[in-house]
Amino acid sequence: MTYIHDTITKLQKTSPAQAEFYQAVEEVLDSLQPILETSEKYQLHSIIERMIEPERQIMFRVPWVDDQGKVQVNKGYRIEFNSALGPYKGGLRFHPSVNAGIIKFLGFEQIFKNALTGLPIGGGKGGANFDPKGKSDGEIMRFCQSFINELYRHIGPTTDVPAGDIGVGAREIGYMFGQYKRLTGNYDGVFTGKSLLWGGSLVRKEATGYGCVYFAQYMLEAKGDILAGKRCLVSGAGNVAIYTIEKLYQLGAIPVSCSDSSGTIYHEAGVNLDTLKELKEVRKVRLNEYVTAHPDAKFIPVADYPADGNAVWRLPAELAFPCATQNELSEADAKALVANGCIGVSEGANMPSTQDAVEVFLDAKIHYGPGKAANAGGVATSQLEMAQNASMQRWSFEEVDEKLKVIMKNIFISASETAAEFGEPHNLVLGANIAGFRKVADAMIEQGVV
Ligand code: GLU
Fold it and tell me: Of 4, 20, 196, which Cα lies nearest the Cα of 93?
């Protein structure tokens, strides 16, 4: 305990004002206690001290010209956190809340998540405090080109392979790839999440959501339960939430909610997937418009949310899929979920539950799939995209989906077997963190002091 406290205190001094990063580190260190106590080699090699310090942090100015002719400036980041297992791999997030602490928490989580997939990828993350909301297509393109004018020199198919995250989808990847190609002359797999027209992989778009549902299915099946017929809460309305909802329907479950920054939709009859896709993928508008097409659904505006949490988690359901963003599920939300009969949580977003909320789930002994295990299907399928690009092949939807299922199953097995090995069979936080950590730590030791 003092070791964790000392490490966080030191981090607060050396990397000030990075609350989300401390939160992510603390959770991992907490899980690692049993292994750090018994294994001297990790201490001798200062594995923790090295792991919490990124190998390289690139921060840069991103100037661009808006439609009024005014020059705008944003902050760009790429944190190359750990390359013990392979080239840095992780998405880019464009959102006004982005700062060094957010990108570091995401990059840190990515190390363990990527290790858990069993694929040869290291961990990294990047982004900018750029708000794509309300921007024209031309503004998005100019921003992406300016971002790459700096980043291109740091990335490559065997060094660092960015992808999407919040605010970065196929359109942004297209503009960034185009500018990278222009500057380097290389047509290679330097990004994942590319369009299917020019090197993208089938299932990549769906993979995070599908994977998160497969993970829930494996958690339930391990205890002799099934997903079919379960009522499910989903938060978010982006790529992850949409394809979580799609897969829930395919497997016979009933998703009854979704949400965005304007509020929450509660549709007891089941969220209409076509309407959701139309609003979010085609028209790109706020969710309040959903009720125009479905007057039997309820819209809860953000102004009506409880002071200590998020309205979506106060609704009754058996399963919850947080697919929006970090810390969107508070301790009070977790208590409400459990009190309302929720028996399982599978996280599509990165670190959506606060540390206190996670404690509530673990104490209640409900199924809890932490993000770094449950949402690893996205990055895993990115690696499948890299493999197809490198071998100049194109796999079918069924082939990629089958590989995704196997990867998610293996992640579940690896996290649950490791949890059992350390005497807490239900604790997949502990299992996922230790399983991921061991792979990275042992590779670091074998590669020497670098
Ligand atoms: N942004 C996604 C994640 O959090 C995907 C990263 C990737 O595909 O490289 O894992």
Answer: 20
Domains 2-188 and 207-369 agree in fold: yes
- For residues 62-100, one letter each, b for 16 or more C-beta atoms within 10 angstroms of the residue's C-beta and e for the rest, the string is bebeeeeeeebebbbbbbbbbbbbbbbbbbbbbbeebbb
The tokens describing 32, both together, are 């690692």
Between CA 230 and CA 313 the distance in angstroms is: 16
Residue 402, number of CB atoms within 10 A of its CB: 13
User: Is 335 an annotated catalytic residue?
Assistant: no
Q: What is the dihedral sign for C-alpha 435, 440, 442, 443?
A: positive
- Which residue's CA is the nearest one to ligand 1's atom 9? 90
Residue 264, SS3? strand
CATH 3.40.50.10860 fits 2-188, yes or no: yes
- Asked if residue 207 lies in contact with residue 407, where contact means CB atoms within 8 angstroms, the answer is no
The CATH label, of 3.40.50.300, 3.40.50.720, 3.40.190.10, 3.40.50.620, for the domain at 207-369 is 3.40.50.720
* Active-site residue identified among 89, 104, 113, 125: 125
Which numbered atom of ligand 1 lies nearest the CA of 376?
10
Ligand 1 site residues, Cβ closer than 6 angstroms: 89-91, 163, 165, 192, 350, 378-379, 382
3-class secondary structure per residue, 25-67: HHHHHHHHHHHHHHCHHHHHCCHHHHHCCCCEEEEEEEEEECC
Q: What is the pLDDT of residues 271-309, one digit of tens each?
A: 999 999 999 999 999 999 999 999 999 999 999 999 999
Q: At 240, which amino acid appears?
A: V
Tally DSSP H helices, then E strands, for the chain: 17, 13
Q: What is the pLDDT of residues 189-204, one digit of tens each?
A: 999 999 999 999 999 9
Ligand 1 centre to CA of 93 (Å) is 10
Q: Where are the domains of the chain?
A: 2-188, 207-369
Q: Determine if the pTM surpasses 0.90.
A: yes
CB 415 within 8 A of CB 432: yes
Let me know: does 99 contact 136? Beta carbons within 8 Å. no
Tokens of 98: 């982005």
Distance 433 CA to ligand 1 centre (A): 18
